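Hi C.,

You asked whether I'd gotten around to modeling the 133-residue construct. I have! Everything is below, sequence then structure, no commentary in between.
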Amino acid sequence: MKSWKTFCNLTPSTKPWNAVYKISSNKAKRSQILTTLQKPDGTLTTDINEIFTYMLDYLITKDEEDNDLDYHKTIRTLTEQLIQTADDREYMPEEIGNAVYAINCKKAPGLDAITSDNSACLQTISESYKHIV
């Protein structure tokens, strides 16, 4: 009964039986599965690996320094330089250990994207290499 109420609430009032008719007559649109892509030269991709390779090559541009404008060259240079401020200092091993152990497994990851799974790994690493850190 609950699913029927949900269906009725989502169905537009102008054509309430439209969805029921399409489902019962097997005319409901089914989602399409991507099986091939046509390349600019007219050939078709042959398998899923080629589809993804073609999509990635098309959607993600290559990072070539030769094509950088002055603005991009400046940004690239700035990202390669270390930022030194007056209050910079080395981290103490205890600080790193405390930060790793303070990660709450029941909370969403923060800006650093460290999850509880990463946290367990970091705890193991920090215990194993305390003498180095």
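If it helps when you're writing up: The mean pLDDT is 76.

Thanks,
B.
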